């Protein structure tokens, strides 16, 4: 490896770390904003928890997204260190432009577009099957997120169902799902490392229903949900408001964990081919991204938390819960499928869906159209710019 190549590798790693820092400072704040807006937790403590939970999620769940961004967006070529640096620089440039101008630039769209552009400049071919899978998921997210948020808000506003039942029920549902999410601390192959499956393996000789349904996994998931339900129910029986605030903090932690897992691959993915070439374990790359997210959250999220929490305080506690539940579910679905996703896309759609229960999503049609336009411009603009930046760098440095 030449001196120039080593320098490019170091630049790419620094760019990846900075990208992770930026994600920690911006994209991971929404999960705790409702709790801050409801005065359930101080801002600085929320920033601390955001960093911890998002970093843990990045390390435990970020592998599938990182692999897709690094190797699944382009066929027939491997992203070079210079290509990784060019792609990360392009995505960071779009995100910085969005922050400075107020345009809603989603990191997932900018990074995906940039890496596709770089891959094409490298001489690769479009990975049409991957694009179709990602595009279908992205188009579905606003509708699914809004529907889940609407259903959740309707449940919380239903006068015939006491809040001491509806809120613990939602908590139990989250607990049930958590028992089935892939977490790297459990042994097994990717997609199979869940608490429910781990318990099933330990039990052994697990009976099945209808030939395929694992009874032990179902029981483990159900028990997990019941434990959360009972704990939250007892808390709300002592004080409804205190119980809801505790649920907001807990839900914020779960969503921040999911956010870290779904976002870290945007920073580490471009380096995936490089680390694979040198036989460096994937966990090392995820730790690099996790540390960047941790520091970004601690250093940059307090100010954004204050701004976002004011928006959530206008929504109210119950509508905030309805906006966060889809964030958890869709982020976990994206992680399971290895699809890079914009967390802001989920949250905006959820806020609109929860607002429809009271007759208005609180977002004008003009604002929705503006946001969609910004997403499309981010995707295709980053692709064109990534192609151009990589081509220019190759011409100037002679490195490919």
Q: What are the key terms here?
A:
Phos_transporter; phosphate transmembrane transporter activity; phosphate transport; single chain; transmembrane; 2% strand; transport; two-stranded antiparallel ribbon; 16 helices; 400 residues
Short account of what is shown:
It contains 16 helices and 4 strands. The protein has 400 residues and is an all-alpha fold.
Characterise this structure:
This protein is an all-alpha fold. Helices cover 77% and strands 2% of the residues. It has 16 helices and four strands. It has helices spanning 3-26, 33-37, 43-61, 63-72, 81-101, 107-121, 128-157, 163-178, 195-203, 215-238, 240-268, 272-277, 282-315, 317-337, 343-355, 365-397, and strands at 74-75, 125-126, 208-209, 213-214. The strands form two sheets. It has a two-stranded antiparallel sheet with strand order 1-2. The protein has a two-stranded antiparallel sheet with strand order 3-4. Strand 3 (208-209) and strand 4 (213-214) form a beta hairpin. Helix 10 crosses helix 11 (240-268) and helix 11 runs parallel beside helix 14 (317-337). It is found in: Membrane. Potential transporter for phosphate. InterPro entries: Phos_transporter.
Topology:
Elements (H helix, E strand, L loop, with lengths): L2 H24 L6 H5 L5 H19 L1 H10 L1 E2 L5 H21 L5 H15 L3 E2 L1 H30 L5 H16 L16 H9 L4 E2 L3 E2 H24 L1 H29 L3 H6 L4 H34 L1 H21 L5 H13 L9 H33 L3
């Amino acid at each position: 490896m030449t001196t120039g190549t080593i320098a490019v590798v170091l630049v790419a790693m620094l760019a990846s770390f900075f990208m992770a820092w930026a994600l920690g400072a911006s994209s991971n704040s929404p999960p705790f904003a409702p709790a801050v807006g409801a005065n359930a937790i101080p801002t600085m403590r929320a920033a601390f928890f955001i960093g911890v939970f998002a970093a843990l999620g990045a390390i435990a769940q970020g592998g599938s997204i990182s692999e897709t961004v690094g190797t699944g967006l382009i066929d027939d070529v491997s992203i070079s260190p210079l290509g990784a640096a060019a792609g990360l620089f392009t995505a960071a440039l779009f995100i910085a432009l969005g922050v400075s101008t107020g345009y809603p630039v989603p990191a997932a769209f900018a990074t995906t577009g940039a890496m596709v552009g770089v891959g094409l400049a490298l001489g690769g071919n479009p990975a049409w099957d991957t694009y179709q899978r990602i595009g279908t998921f992205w188009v579905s997210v606003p509708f699914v997120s809004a529907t889940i948020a609407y259903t959740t808000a309707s449940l919380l506003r239903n006068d015939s169902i006491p809040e001491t039942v509806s809120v613990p029920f939602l908590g139990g549902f989250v607990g049930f799902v958590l028992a089935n999410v892939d977490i790297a601390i459990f042994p097994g192959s990717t997609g199979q490392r869940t608490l429910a499956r781990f318990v099933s393996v330990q039990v052994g000789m697990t009976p099945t229903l209808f030939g395929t349904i694992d009874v032990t996994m179902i029981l483990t998931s159900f028990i997990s949900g019941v434990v959360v339900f009972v704990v939250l129910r007892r808390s709300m029986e002592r004080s409804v408001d205190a119980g809801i605030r505790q649920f907001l903090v807990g839900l914020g932690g779960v969503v921040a964990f999911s956010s870290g897992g779904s976002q870290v691959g945007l920073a580490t993915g471009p380096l995936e081919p490089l680390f694979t070439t040198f036989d460096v374990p994937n966990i090392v790359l995820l730790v690099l991204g996790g540390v960047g997210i941790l520091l970004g959250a601690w250093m940059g999220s307090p100010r954004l938390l204050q701004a976002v929490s004011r928006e959530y305080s206008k929504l109210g506690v119950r509508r905030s819960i309805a906006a966060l539940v889809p964030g958890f579910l869709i982020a976990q679905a994206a992680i399971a499928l290895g699809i890079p996703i914009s967390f802001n896309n989920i949250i905006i759609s959820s806020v609109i869906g929860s607002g429809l229960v009271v007759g208005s999503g609180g977002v004008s049609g003009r604002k929705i159209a503006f946001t969609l336009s910004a997403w499309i411009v981010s995707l295709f603009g980053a692709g064109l710019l990534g192609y151009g930046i990589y081509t220019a760098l190759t011409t100037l440095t002679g490195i490919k």
